[in-house]
Write a structure and sequence with these properties.
single chain; alpha/beta; Rossmann fold; 9 strands; 28% helix; 16% strand; globular
Length: 338
Amino acid sequence: MAAFWTSLVGVKSRNERATWRVDVSEAVDLDGCLEVAVDVVLPPREALRAPATLLFCLPGGFLTRRYFDLGDPSDPVECTYSFAEHMAGLGYAVAALDHVGVGDSSKPERLEDGYSLGVDEIARSNQCAWREVMARVARSLGVATDELVSVGVGHSMGSALTVAQQANHGPHRLLVLQSFGSGGLPAFLQGDEPSYANDPERTRAHVGELVRARFGTPYPGAANEEDAGTSAAFSVGSAPPLAERLLSGVATNLLATCGLLTMIPGAYAPYAEKIAVPCFIAMGDKDLLAAHQVPPMLPNASETVAYTLPDSWHCHNVANTRQQMWDRTARWLNAMLC
């Protein structure tokens, strides 16, 4: 796994960046080599907060890992859309990955095998990547791996997969969940899908069939195709055209086996019920769900803080108010990690 480090020359940022490919073949029982693409943004060692903390970020449906690092880091305006740049500026290390089947990560050799990439398989592959990323980031920062604190960060489908990874493997001390919910989106269901509501075991057992019936492929097309403008999830609302351009630039195919489950009520509930760590929940005021609705979905979390970002739709990182959410997240993290 090669690392490609760059330093930004002639610009304000002193953060370091890397792009890695991590072999996760051992985590998924499918033929061939499977790798995930990971981007890492690290603060200078002298600016690293204590304790050293890695934000491990999982993108939502139809989005690549670059959702967490939007824009050109050397552009003084575009860089203000980068969650990774902002948080690294506050002393946090940030890593974001593309799930298997998405973006720059591998797809299984056979198209048919994409229907086997269920939530548990993706949670295992992300956990495999997490172990390697933690070790490499710790070495880069000059700290012991067991001294590096891990925080799971997810957006939309990525928040659901963060919850699943935490429920199955427990890697994180804290969770930051943007646009998370286990109640589904019944209004978007089609065909026989409503009959699976609140029956998570049956849903997971038949998700491949449901995906085949609805999409005809495990990797339905990118969200910036012709009908993307009609999707409530990808509206940028009052944000400027630059925000829409940046968001469209990080679009990819959907990993349908995991994405469809976010729409079926209760499909992620068994994972959510296993979460015991503190959770920070962020929702836009014009999001698909209200922030106060989420804490009851995480009944065993030791703490839940629900935050509503004003003037924000589903993709908070392009909202005019995005830095308010990032700073509120950092204040919560600082209080929990002090």
